[in-house]
């Protein structure tokens, strides 16, 4: 990511033709296969972000959403496309100024979800679990989860680790930035785990943590066991709710 006068620029290079990536950004059925996580409001969130009131140019493959954040696609070969988001300047939308850094972090997460879903799974159906909030352990999420060894792994390199849930993890380090790490997980049907430290803002004065698990092809028993293991760890380690 680089800082420009307009705002942060976040980009990824996706190993796919520009037309395929553009379709993944415009078809709501495809967007739900990479954007965010499973919640009842996902379809409405997709419409709000990517469809309602946007300005798009399918020929130039540009998309400007409400608030002024702008997607541009740049085909650098027949099977390689740069997806770039230029964020609107901070303060351009007063309703979201408190969450500006959260939006920047979210775009990074979403772009790497897009790249992963397109490159590794051809936008197949997925299952996701999200845990987020404040942990009792004030250290960064990698330390709190016992995965600090991932800091020494280079993107594209293999890793092995024991998850906070107790299961063995293996795969490759998919991407990283100072506040987030994404790793593939072989045992989740070639899934994706993103660990993130959430920014401090007026509504979250101590910051927070996020674990986002994406899985493919797991049978119901395996899926339910996975949710139970990670949910048990999260509930044990999250900070108590503040007193009213």
From TrEMBL:
InterPro entries to which the protein is assigned, alphabetical: START-like_dom_sf
SUPFAM superfamilies: Bet v1-like
Gene3D superfamilies: 3.30.530.20
Protein name: Activator of Hsp90 ATPase homolog 1-like protein
């Amino acid at each position: 990511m680089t800082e420009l006068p307009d705002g942060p620029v976040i980009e990824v290079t996706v190993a796919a033709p520009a037309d395929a990536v553009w379709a993944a950004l415009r078809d709501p059925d495809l967007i739900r296969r990479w954007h965010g996580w499973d919640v009842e409001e996902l379809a409405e969130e997709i419409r709000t972000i990517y469809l309602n009131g946007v300005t798009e140019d399918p020929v130039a493959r540009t998309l400007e959403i409400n608030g002024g954040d702008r997607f541009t696609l740049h085909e650098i070969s027949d099977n390689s496309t740069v997806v770039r988001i230029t964020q609107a300047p901070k303060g351009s939308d007063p309703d979201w100024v408190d969450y500006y850094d959260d939006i920047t972090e979210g775009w990074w997460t979403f772009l790497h979800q897009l790249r992963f879903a397109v490159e590794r799974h051809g936008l197949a159906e997925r299952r996701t679990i999200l845990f987020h909030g404040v942990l009792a352990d004030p250290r960064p999420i990698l330390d709190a989860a016992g995965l600090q060894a991932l800091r020494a792994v280079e993107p594209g390199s293999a890793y092995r680790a024991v998850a906070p849930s107790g299961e063995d993890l293996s795969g490759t380090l998919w991407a990283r930035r100072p506040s987030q790490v994404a790793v593939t997980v072989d045992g989740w049907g070639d899934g994706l785990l993103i660990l993130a430290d959430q920014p401090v803002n007026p509504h979250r004065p101590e910051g927070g943590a996020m674990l986002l698990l994406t899985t493919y092809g797991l049978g119901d028993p395996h899926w339910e066991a996975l949710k139970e293991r990670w949910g048990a760890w999260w509930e044990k380690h999250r900070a108590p709710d503040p007193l009213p």
